[in-house]
Amino acid sequence: MILVTVGTTIPFDSLIKKVDQLCQDGTITEPVLCQIGKGQYEPSHCQFLRFLPNLNNEIDSASLVIGHGGTGTTLDLIQ
Predict the structure, then answer these.
(1) Which residue has the higher pLDDT, 72 or 39?
(2) Residue 79 has what pLDDT?
(3) Start-to-end CA span in the chain (Å)
């Protein structure tokens, strides 16, 4: 599973849209889970959720994490 996380503060709809497009066109074939936070775009070719208290279980299950580079995400990945 690929995890895409944009944090909880600022929406990153362009990142979510691009990943959704890559899933649609078959470039990404692995299951994808997007944490979309306050974003308005809801992907239709991968699973999504808005918020979780933490993403530790999802990070542990992911083969790849794509993040927006926020402090919280970065610290979670380092741990």
Answers:
(1) 39
(2) 75
(3) 19
